[in-house]
Predict the structure.
Amino acid sequence: MVGPDYHRPAEPHTAAGPFVDPGTTKVSTAPAEGQWWHLFENPALDRLVTDALTYNSDVRVAAANLRRARGVLEEERGNLLPGGQAQAQYSYERNGANGAQSQNAQTDTHSFYKIGIDAGYQVDLWGGIRRGIEAARGDVGAAQAALDAARITVAAETARMYAQACGFAAQAQVARDTADLQQSTLDLTRRLLAAGRGTQRDVDQAVVLTENARAQVPQLEAERRASLYALAALTGRTPAELDAEAARCTVPPDVHVLIPVGDGAALIARRPDVRRAERQLAGDTARIGVAVSELYPSITLLGSISLGARRLSDLGDKDSLSFSLGPLIQWNLANLTQGRSRIHQAEARADASLAAFDGAVLTALKEVEQALARYSGEIERNVALRRAEAAASNAARIAEARFEAGRDSFLQRLDAERDRAAARAALAQSNTALAQAQVALFNALGGGWEQAPQPIRREAGMVPPNRPR
């Protein structure tokens, strides 16, 4: 076969080793988990991800593209087989005397019956057809990888939206609790003012803290609902069909074990975007051979056999038999310049695919290292914020007791309340960010496409779980 034979390009030798970020001390080097969402041990999340992988429209589009690529491969394989067509013809003919060459000719009117078979077989002398099959096979692999990549993205986005909805619910509850505490302080301040122990400024400062806490609740609730609407769309539902369990969630999911990440070699083998780039390169390399084969003559074996007679009953006679057999050689000498131009185009396309493959490998490694760094940083931040929240709550309780005993000023109590509210809000935000950092790491590791359900269209009228009929 003309054209270059494909060989998988080698990755940098350092790409196959362990990950280098210091944050890897907070994860496990065990093989990465395929269905990673089970590590959250959250049945609602498991169900939502399964629904998304089954009904999501982006996954369905990618699955349809894969079926189309497989159809193209079948068509290319069919070029290796002989082609032909059968014919059956009837005509009523009239040959006028004036159009005949003989002066004694007379007008002839008759019927004519004909049946026959034409067949042809293109000899794949230069391997152009087989290179076309190689190219189509590479396209099928790329389409399969694109489907797997869509599954990973949808699973990660579903988990992220679920964590975000739960996180906003938790932050809204913190804001409500803070507003309740501030309201208690405000009530006490007003009573002290009525008893002559406070000032109107103290009351106004307490009002500011209370209303600021209340003002956060509507915004956080709006973001929670927005996340639930996105979650519905991801699982193939309309915004009117919100998932009841997700709507009730008030605690972001969390992985309580070391996350298994494997190493660089396993990552490159698992990431669908790397596989897609490699398969695209294989297909584009084969297309160079297709272009080269067009420079050479094509040989087609042709044959036809037919029976023709003026009367239908005469079709079986030997005199009605006609046939032809022989090769057809074609060589487009006038467009050799165009043929060479197509070769140069195919070579440039293969070079671009090679660069895309190298970029996909580097991107995979980069995204995992970035996710590890951010996950490690968020763990440390979350631990520090937990300590800060505990200390702020304790300080606020002490300040409340000292203020009621008349040993601290109202300003000192307000400062303590403000610090507690800020610490609680920061911890609630960090809990959400930690869950999202875990999801981002899973997404970068490229798992989640294994053993995925077959995508289908959600039928109209299907009632979502936990929703009354």
User: Anything to note?
Assistant: Residues 336-404 form the longest helix (69 residues). Confidence is low (pLDDT under 50) at residues 464-469. The domain at 13-83+141-296+337-445 is CATH 1.20.1600.10 (Outer membrane efflux proteins (OEP)). DSSP finds nine helices and six strands in the chain.
